[in-house]
User: What shape does this take?
Amino acid sequence: MKNLLSFIFVALLCLHLSPTSKATDSNHQQSFEYATIRWSGRDNTHVIRPNGQVEFVGPQLAKVKRIDRVDDRAFYMNIVMNALAKEGYEFAGISNDEIVMKRAVH
Assistant: This one.
């Protein structure tokens, strides 16, 4: 019985402190929004915006002259990252073919 009461107490405490219970609080606001750059070759690389809009950036990348012997992926992803940095984004994470950028929401 004592174990059952302890379990119930811990469960109620977890529910009270859980992030989802605070998410319903009217003062809770998202502090960051995220954009994902997805490498799919120069022509098909795209940015997934925070609102879900997908922007293919291949046409813009085709206008940039790449220096010989430079890795395509690294070069073009760097171009896109810097374009997003001009919009207030900063690096947040990376995987094999994606870079996640974030910016503060005011």
Remarks:
- Strands lie at 32-38, 46-48, 54-56, 90-94, 98-104.
